Amino acid sequence: MIDPWGSSNVDYEKLVQQFGIKPFKDLLNDLTDPHLLMRRGIIFGQRDYGRIVKAIRDKEDFAVITGMMPSGKMHIGHKMVVDQIIWYEKHGADIYIPIADMESYSARGVDFEASRELAINEYITNYIALGLDFKKSNINVYLQSKNLLVNDLAYVLSKKVTFNEMKAIYGFNGSTNMAHMQAPLIQVADILHPQLEEFGGPKPTVVPVGPDQDPHIRLTRDIANRFKNQLNFIAPSSTYHRFITGLTGGKMSSSQPKTAIFLSDSIEEAENKVKTAKTGGRESLKEQQEKGGDPINCVIYEMLLYHLMESDEKLQEILEDCKSGNIMCGECKAHTADLMKKFFEEFSSKRKKGAKNAEKVLDGAKVC
Amino acid sequence: MIDPWGSSNVDYEKLVQQFGIKPFKDLLNDLTDPHLLMRRGIIFGQRDYGRIVKAIRDKEDFAVITGMMPSGKMHIGHKMVVDQIIWYEKHGADIYIPIADMESYSARGVDFEASRELAINEYITNYIALGLDFKKSNINVYLQSKNLLVNDLAYVLSKKVTFNEMKAIYGFNGSTNMAHMQAPLIQVADILHPQLEEFGGPKPTVVPVGPDQDPHIRLTRDIANRFKNQLNFIAPSSTYHRFITGLTGGKMSSSQPKTAIFLSDSIEEAENKVKTAKTGGRESLKEQQEKGGDPINCVIYEMLLYHLMESDEKLQEILEDCKSGNIMCGECKAHTADLMKKFFEEFSSKRKKGAKNAEKVLDGAKVC
Fold first, then answer.
1. What is the ipTM of this complex?
2. Cβ-based interface (< 8 Å): residues of B facing A
3. Which of A65, A70, A346, B199 could form a disulfide with A96 if both were Cys (CB 3.0 to 4.6 A apart)?
């Protein structure tokens, strides 16, 4: 049997084993309509996700928290997070979207005003264009530096965290600046504040992250437990997703433009970038006809897997055609580039509309 | 020549020499009507106070910042700070009174709500009763935890401070909790925020403190200089005052009730506490008639010096009568107890009035 969602990246498996992250697939059948990213194993791990499954099923209050750090441009890999938010929103979650301007200042030197501009013109604009409806009342977006409640909570929580712990988790040392040391605690408060009385009290919450963010999650869950008696927190749940591979085969990164399709790229740029991406093709056409392609190590296949092919059946067909040598990279690339072109045609026009409304989103935000 | 204001405590002199604090008396003649605490050398040291003298003389903008940490009860030694605020207010200063609820939480475990109650019912009530008129538009009182601007500024400033520095100044170590480590930086922001554009931009500022607070002042001045280019701060000035001696001869401390006359004491309690205080009397009446008393080591004399004797001439008379053996402790105590009784008679009735208005002060505060 072929597993169309298998990953060549063994690190993800290791993470699951080493740090107590549980496989997501264990809970997959408990969801009546799992998201494409869940069905395809891109969301591969979870902690305490059973609480979220139950909340969805029983239509109980729950919240999703997923921040954006305004620094640089969004690439197509970031779309994954927005797709998840939209899915959760449809399944009854309250959505909290902190804009990490404090972290962006201490980690990247971006001042609060510049963060605000970037959040509006890049991030919120893209979120709108990707289909997130900020007019819905259950979506809360805020700048960390403008949220007194979150800052106060961070301070309250900080009393039960020592420098030694922060050092062990983040590798801080004596020359670490004090703002940098505080940033993770602001993030802990971002994640826990939806459980304050002001927001309806303790409830299941989930944070969808990449596995690199797991130290934050573990710290947050630890702190939640330390304040269990005072603030009745339920330790937040989390899910872990794989990252899309960059165009050149390594990591897709905004700071390395050759690796990324940016959401602000023109239709032509996006289309052309697909055409030049690294595939899982063999050295010769003859070899590929004999052995078939290697879709698991193919950027083009990942584009379909993550973003461009909604139908599982069609994706399975392409996978089998590739593996059996029935379809060559040229044809597959042309097809995928065409899908990307169509996506960007629609997306670019939505982006223009989104830009007009993005500023209002932040000004009208329900921030305490 | 007799120096009626001399201190037996040599540590104050050492401080001036070791840490670069300048004697206050150097600038005394530049003030047209120095406060009693200045004239009498109770305010004994300063840093960059020339800026403040100039601002007073030229009627230029300047600010005074003096916080209150709501923990425990106020004693008569604390009156000194309020006396200074009132003097500065009359001399054209904008007054900033941060209520250090964040510090009180991290240092003493007092939660924000309890701090607020204590600030209203004890501190602000006493400040009103001591004569501070909160209705004046140039007085800004705020809770740290409710002042977003101060919290944001603290974070911005924290980027140029390392853990090693905080360790060197405050003796922090690996087991220090993160809230405790942040508290001094909130205080730095308390002191510097009156110089932000929102409050009229850079201006001379002064912080009246006890010498134990000088490490905070030095840190604040250092940080102000580090942000000179970005935020144009003028390094804050400071003054240093001696502490009134406790009733039993040591430190007057709210946590040791036998040492202190509390502002919430009844008239009788206050009067009786004076009567039982340690004096600079000799072992026998005869010895005292011959050698005279020792007013420099007399709690009763300090009560007059700091609080109960406005006239310098009369104080000088008492001093000389004591030193020459013309007045014995019994008589002097009775006189001082009577003055204390009169002070408390007036103060207690003002305190009742103050209590009614204290809550309004905080709710109507011009907090950003």
1. 0.90
2. 102, 105-106, 112, 145-146, 148, 151-152, 155-156, 158-164, 166-167, 172-182, 185
3. A65
